[in-house]
Amino acid sequence: MAENSLLAFGAHPDDIEFGCGGVIARETQAGRKAHFVICSKGEAGTNGTPDQRANESSEAAKILGATVEFLELDGDSHLEMRVAHKIKLAEIIRREKPSTVLATSCVENQHPDHARLGQLVRDAARMARYGGLEELKNYDVHEIEQLFYYAVTPDGEPTDVMPVLIDISASEVIAAWTSAMLAHGSQGATRNYLDLQLTRAKLLGARARVEYASALYPNESLVFQSLSQVGRGARNF
Amino acid sequence: MAENSLLAFGAHPDDIEFGCGGVIARETQAGRKAHFVICSKGEAGTNGTPDQRANESSEAAKILGATVEFLELDGDSHLEMRVAHKIKLAEIIRREKPSTVLATSCVENQHPDHARLGQLVRDAARMARYGGLEELKNYDVHEIEQLFYYAVTPDGEPTDVMPVLIDISASEVIAAWTSAMLAHGSQGATRNYLDLQLTRAKLLGARARVEYASALYPNESLVFQSLSQVGRGARNF
Amino acid sequence: MAENSLLAFGAHPDDIEFGCGGVIARETQAGRKAHFVICSKGEAGTNGTPDQRANESSEAAKILGATVEFLELDGDSHLEMRVAHKIKLAEIIRREKPSTVLATSCVENQHPDHARLGQLVRDAARMARYGGLEELKNYDVHEIEQLFYYAVTPDGEPTDVMPVLIDISASEVIAAWTSAMLAHGSQGATRNYLDLQLTRAKLLGARARVEYASALYPNESLVFQSLSQVGRGARNF
Amino acid sequence: MAENSLLAFGAHPDDIEFGCGGVIARETQAGRKAHFVICSKGEAGTNGTPDQRANESSEAAKILGATVEFLELDGDSHLEMRVAHKIKLAEIIRREKPSTVLATSCVENQHPDHARLGQLVRDAARMARYGGLEELKNYDVHEIEQLFYYAVTPDGEPTDVMPVLIDISASEVIAAWTSAMLAHGSQGATRNYLDLQLTRAKLLGARARVEYASALYPNESLVFQSLSQVGRGARNF
Amino acid sequence: MAENSLLAFGAHPDDIEFGCGGVIARETQAGRKAHFVICSKGEAGTNGTPDQRANESSEAAKILGATVEFLELDGDSHLEMRVAHKIKLAEIIRREKPSTVLATSCVENQHPDHARLGQLVRDAARMARYGGLEELKNYDVHEIEQLFYYAVTPDGEPTDVMPVLIDISASEVIAAWTSAMLAHGSQGATRNYLDLQLTRAKLLGARARVEYASALYPNESLVFQSLSQVGRGARNF
Amino acid sequence: MAENSLLAFGAHPDDIEFGCGGVIARETQAGRKAHFVICSKGEAGTNGTPDQRANESSEAAKILGATVEFLELDGDSHLEMRVAHKIKLAEIIRREKPSTVLATSCVENQHPDHARLGQLVRDAARMARYGGLEELKNYDVHEIEQLFYYAVTPDGEPTDVMPVLIDISASEVIAAWTSAMLAHGSQGATRNYLDLQLTRAKLLGARARVEYASALYPNESLVFQSLSQVGRGARNF
Questions:
Q1: What is the ipTM of this complex?
Q2: Alpha-carbon distance A118 to A8, whole Å?
Q3: Which residue from C111, C184, C209, F233 puts its CA 20 to 30 A from C79's CA?
Q4: pLDDT for C154-190, tens place per residue?
C-alpha cells in the first residue's frame, strides 16, 4: 500500500460506508489510498444475499475510491474474541502497511459484532509490531501511526473519549458519501440510514462550525510536533 | 497581538513556567508570540516577597520569549468565582486577540486557585465573543481558536480527557524551559519542582516516543480539515 | 397552579423554547398547565433589545400554552451562585406548586449561565421543602415530584446520565414548537437554531423509534409503582 | 407467553429470587406472566445437590407465580462468552416473546458467571430480532420492549447508570419474596442473604420514600409517550 | 489537641453523628481525641430551636467522647463558597492540629450545605499549610495527615472513589453511636434516621464481612510504609 | 506457603519485575514470602529465546527474594479468556495459600495479555473459595485477603481507582529492584524500561512525599479495624 494510506475494517458490508464513509471520501479525494476489509457478508441480515451484499460493497468502495476485500472470521452475528482472528487481522495490517487504521468502536451497541471487531483490531494493531510471532513471520513488522474508531450508529459513540471532528463539508465529499451509502440498495431501510447519517454529520457540523463533520475516536493520546498543528476547538452556538 | 499568538494565564508567578513552560518555549522559538497574565504575586507563599516574585516572573517570561502582565483579582489563595473577574479576563482576551489560550486545569488540586482560574478563563473565553456585554464595549468581540488546560502538578491532570502531547524534546526548548523554571530562585523548593517537571516530561515523552513531551488538555473536541493533519497516536513500550 | 403542572426555568429568553419546547407543547396540548420563569432579558446578546426579547418570549410562551414571568437575578452572562437567588427561585416553586420542574442542565456548555441556573434551581427545589427558612415563611412548604434538566445545545447534554426520551412526533406538537422557536425573530441565527433543534429531535427520534423525540435528564432515580409503568427501551437501528 | 410478560434469566438457582424476586412478585401479583430461565444448577456451590437446588428453584418460582426451566450452558462457574450460548438464549426469547427481559448485571462482581450472563442475554436480545440467523429460523423474530439488569448482591450494582426504583412495599409482595428466598433452604447462608436483601430493599425504600424498593438498571434510555407517565423522582431525607 | 487527634466538621447539628458517629466512637474508645466543629445550629430545620439543637449536639458529642464548638458561617441552608469561610476553617485546623480531618462529602445531595462544606474544608486543609497567609499568622502552619469525607445520607456517597471501610461492630461502639443519634430528640424523624444509618452500616458490614461497617472516602491516595499495613479487601457474599 | 505471603502473576517473564518489583523487594526484605507465576516465556518478543528468558526470570526472582514457576496457558500474545485457565490459576492460589495476590491490571494497554491475565486472576481468586468445584477438589478452599493490580507501563494504570502508594525508598529496596530489572538482559530496551520505571516511581514518590513510591490498585474496598491504621494521604507540592 502507498505511504500514508488508510485501512478500514467493518464487521458487515455497510459498516464503513455508514460509519465513516464521509471521512474516507475526504481523504481519497485528497489523494490518499484506502483499503477496506469487511469481516462478513451480512448473512444474518433480513434482506440481501451474501453475493448481492458483496457486490454492493464493491460498488460502494469504488465510489469512495477504495479497494476492498472480504475476510471470513466467524460469520455475521457470530464474531468471538479469538486470538486466531487477531492474527489474521494483524497479517493484513502487516501486508497493507497503513499509516491509519479505522475500526468500529469498542462501545457495546445495537450489533454485538461491532464492539468485538473494534477490540480485535485494536489488539491486532499491537500484534502487528511484535517481532516474535511465528504465525506472522511471512510479513515484516509494521507499526501504524494512528488507530481511530468510528461509530456505525449513535449508540456506538464513546462518551468518555473526546472525538476529533473531520470537516467533510465539501460537496464532492458529501456526494460520494451519499452515493456509497445508496449503493447498499438491498437493504430496505437504506434511505432511513442515509438520512440518519447525514443528520448526524449535520449536527456535528453545527458543533464544529462547518456544514458537515464526522467524528473519529482516537485510541490513544495524539502527538504533535507543535501546538500550532493542533486543530481548532469546536466551540459554537 | 500578532496572528496565531498564545495567551497563557497563571494563578501564581510560577504556574505557567512549571505547568507548560516547555510548550511555550517550543512555540515562541518557532516564531509565535506569547503573552502571560499572572493573577497574583504569590503573596501567600512561604518564601519571596511580591516584588521578588514579580521580578522572577518577568525574567522567566523573557527567557521563554513572552511578555508578561500582572492582574489583581482576589490575591493569592483568595480567588473566588466572580463574574467581575471573568469580565477582566475577557477584556484581556479581546485586547490580546490570541488564537490559543492556555489556563490552569479545572481539576481540584493542591492549590484551590488553580481550578478556580481555569473555570474563570473558560467562561471569559466565551464572554469574549458575546456581542452585548456593556463592560466589554471598549474592545471588539474576539473568538479564540483553542482553549487548552495545563496541570501545574500531576494531581491537576484531568483523568477523563485525553491530552494532546506536544513534542518538546529539542535541546534549546528544554534549555529555555529549565532556565525559566530556575529563574524562580526565591522558591526554596525550585530545584525539586524543576526535577518533578522534567521527570513528568520524560515520562510523557516515553509514551509519545520522543525524549520529552508536555500534555495539554483541550476544552472541547478538536476540528481538522482532514484526517492527515491529525497527529500520530502515542503508542509505545 | 393546577395539579400536575410544569414549571420551567430558563436563563435567557429563548432557552426553554429551544431546549425543551417540544416537550412543553406535548404536555400542554394534553392539558397540563405550564409556567416559564426567565432569569434575564438576554441583554448581553448581540441582537434584540430587552423589550423585544421579552415580547418574543411572551409570544413564544403563548404558542406553547404557557404563562411566563421574568426574574431579575444578576443579569445575562452575570449569573453567580448566590443563596439569595436560590431563595427567590424556591419562593417561586412554593408559589407555583408544580409537580415537575425543568431547568437548564448543570453541564458546562457554551453559555456559563446555563449550568449555573441548573445548579441554583436544583438547590431551590430542595429549599422549597425545608420547614424553617425565614425568608420563605410567606409560602407553604412544597415538595416537587420531579426535577429534569434539558440541554439548550448538544454540548450541554450530560454524558453520565441516561435521559428519558419523550415522544414529540405529533404534528401539532412539532408545529407549536417550531412556531415558538420562530417567535424569537430578533435573533439573527434563529433559523439555524431551529434547524439544529429539529435535527437533534429527529436523531433522538431515530433512537427512540419515533419521528421526533426530546431528551430530559432526571436529577435522581425515578420511582414507579410497578415495572409495567416504566417506558420501553430505546433500542433501534 | 402472554402479552406483557416477563422473562428473567439467572446464572444460578437463586439469582433471580435474591436479585429481583420482589419485583417479580409485584408484577405477577398484578397479573403479569413470568418465566425463569436458570443457566446452571449451582453445582459448584458448597451446599446442596443439583437436584435439591432445582427443586428449590421450582418451589421458589411457584411462590413467585412464575414458571421455570433450566438451561445447560457451560455449568456453574464455567460460563464463557460463546455465540452458541447467545443463540440458545435468543431462541428462548423468540419462543417466549416477552415484553420485558431481566438479567444479572454486566458489572463484575463476586461471581464471574453473573456479568457474563448479563452480556450474553444483552446480545441474545439483539439477535432475537435479526431476520437472517439460520439457527433461529424455527421461531419468528421477536423484539422485546425493555431489557433491565438486576444485581444479585450490592457489588454488582452499576454505578454509572441511574436505576429505576420499583415500589415493592405491599405486604403480600414482601411475604412472597421472603418465602421464595427461604425456599432455597439447602444454602446454609440463606438466612443471611435474606437479611441482606431485605436490608438493601429497605435502604432503597428510604431513598424512594416507600417502605421497600428494588432497583433495576435499564440497558438503554427509556421512551415515554408523555412526561406525565414518567415516575416521580426519588428525593428524600 | 493531642497527637493523632480527629477533627470533624458538620454543616448541621446532627451531620457528624449520623454520617460518621460510629467511626468517631470507635476511635475515641480506643483513646484518640476528637473535636467537632458544627457550622450552623440547624435553624432552617422544621423542628427544634437553635438552643435545643446546640444542647443536643453537646450531649451527642459527650456520648461520642468528643468536644464540640459551633462556628457561624452563613447560617443553615445559606452556605456559600467564600474564601473568608476557608480562612476560618483553616484557622481551626491550625489551632487544633489534628492528624485526621473528617468532612461532609463534596457530592451534591439532599442538602446543599453538605457538598459546600466539604469543598470549603478541603481547601481549608490546604490553606492551613501555606506559609504566607496574613490572616492565619496567629497560628503555626499545620499539615494534616488525612482528609476523609463521610456521607450523611446514601445520596451523598461518591460513586467514583473507593471508600475505606472501618469495622464498627464492637457492641460498645454501636451503643455509643446509637445513643448519640438518639440525643437529637427534637428531630421528629430521628428514629427513622437512626434506622437508616444502622441499616447502611449493616449492609456495608455484610460487604466487609463484619457486623457493622462505616465508609470513609479518602480525598487522595493513601500512602503506606509497607503492603502488609494495608487493610484486607472487602470480598464477600 | 508461609502465612502472610505474596503471590504475583505476570503474563511475560519481566512483567512482575517492571510492574511491581519494588514492592516485592520491600516486602521480602521485611520477611514476607513471595512466589511468582509467569504465564508465558515471552516467545513472541523480538529478542531472547524462551530458555534465556526463563533463566533471566529465575535470576530476577532470586534477587527479589521470591520463588518462581512457569505456567503454560495459551502462549505469549495468545492469551484468551478461558475457564480452563481460571481453574489452573485458582489451583495455584489454593496450593500457595497467599494472603495477597498481585496481577497485571485489567485496563487495556500496550500488550493484550496484560488485561486478560488480570481478569483471569480476578476470577480465579473468586473460584479459589467456591466449595463445589470438581476440578479443584485436590486442594482446600482458600480465601485470599487482598487482590491488587499493578501496571507494567503507565498506559495500564486504571484512572478510575485510587491506588495505594507503597513507600519503596529504602536504598536496599531500590538496589534489589534495579538489579532485578537489569537481570532481563536479553531485552535490548531493558535500560530504557529501567529508566521508565524509576522515573514513574520517583514521580509517585513526589506525590507521596517520599523518594520512591509504587502504586497498587485494589480490586475492592479495603477494610480496617480502625481509622488509625489507615495510611496517611498523599498530599504534596
A1: 0.94
A2: 11
A3: C184
A4: 999 999 999 999 999 999 999 999 999 999 998 866 6
Distances (CA, A) of E228 to F23, F64, F164: 11, 17, 12
Look at A233 and B218 and tell me if their CB atoms are within 8 Å: yes
Instruction: Give residue-wise pLDDT tens across range D14-73.
Output: 999 999 999 999 999 999 999 999 999 999 988 889 999 999 999 999 999 999 999 999
DSSP 8-state secondary structure symbol assigned to residue A209: T
A146-150: strand order across its sheet: A67-70, A34-38, A6-10, A100-104, A146-150, A213-218, A164-167, B222-224, A232-233
Give, as one character, the DSSP assignment of residue B134.
G
Question: For residue F29, how far is the Cα from the chain centroid?
Answer: 17
Q: H or E element: which one contains D83?
A: helix D83-96
Q: Indicate yes or no: CB of D223 within 8 angstroms of CB of C208.
A: yes
DSSP string of D105-163? -SS--SSHHHHHHHHHHHHHHHHTT-TT-GGGTTS-----SEEEEE-SSGGGS-SSSPP
For residue A229, the SS3 value is helix
Looking at the complex, report in whole angstroms how far the Cα of residue C176 sits from the nearest Cα belonging to chain D: 16
pLDDT digits (tens, 9 = 90+) for E131-161: 999 999 999 999 999 999 999 999 999 999 9
Are the beta carbons of C106 and C149 closer than 8 angstroms?
yes
Query: What are the backbone angles phi and psi of residue F10, rounded to the nearest 5°?
Result: -130, 150
In this prediction, residue E116 carries a pLDDT of 98
Q: Do chains F and B touch (3 or more CB pairs under 8 A)?
A: yes
**Cα distances (Å, whole numbers) of residue D142 to D96, D128, D145, E162:** 9, 6, 10, 41
- All residues of chain C having their beta carbon less than 8 Å from the beta carbon of residue D144 are 233
What does the pLDDT read at residue F188?
A: 67
To the question of pTM greater than 0.90 for the whole model, the response is yes
Is E77's CB within 8 Å of C131's CB? no
Q: Which long-range contacts (CB under 8 A, 24 or more apart) does C170-176 make?
A: C170/C26, C170/C29, C172/C25, C172/C29, C173/C22, C173/C25, C173/C26, C173/C29, C173/C212, C174/C22, C174/C198, C174/C212, C176/C21, C176/C25, C176/C29, C176/C63, C176/C64, C176/C65
Can you tell me the distance from the alpha carbon of D128 to that of D1, in angstroms, rounded to the nearest whole number?
Answer: 15
The neighbouring-strand residues paired with A223 are B165, B232
Q: What is the DSSP letter of A185?
A: T
For residue E70, count CB atoms less than 10 angstroms from its CB and return exposed for 0-12, middle for 13-18, buried for 19 or more: middle
B1: pLDDT strictly greater than 60:
no
Which residue of A152, A159, A200 is in closest CB contact with C203? A200
Torsion of CA C215, C218, C223, C227, to 10 degrees: 30
User: pLDDT-based confidence at B192, cuts 50/70/90?
Assistant: confident
The amino acid present at E31, given as its one-letter code, is G
| Local mean pLDDT, 10-residue blocks, chain F (237 residues) | 86 97 98 97 89 96 98 97 98 97 96 98 96 95 96 94 96 98 83 88 92 97 93 79
The CA distance from C194 to C185, in Å, is: 11
- Residue for cell digits 534549555? B175
- B83 CB near a chain C CB, below 8 Å? yes
For chain F, give the secondary structure using H, E and C: CCCCCEEEEECCCCHHHHHHHHHHHHHHHCCCCEEEEECCCCCCCCCCCHHHHHHHHHHHHHHCCCEEEECCCCCCCCCCCCHHHHHHHHHHHHHHCCCEEEEECCCCCCCHHHHHHHHHHHHHHHHCCCCCCHHHCCCCCCCCCEEEEECCCHHHCCCCCCCEEEECCCHHHHHHHHHHHHCCCCCCCHHHHHHHHHHHHHHHHHHHCCCCEEEEEECCCEEECCHHHCCEECCCC
For residue D81, the chain F residues in CB contact (below 8 A) are 81
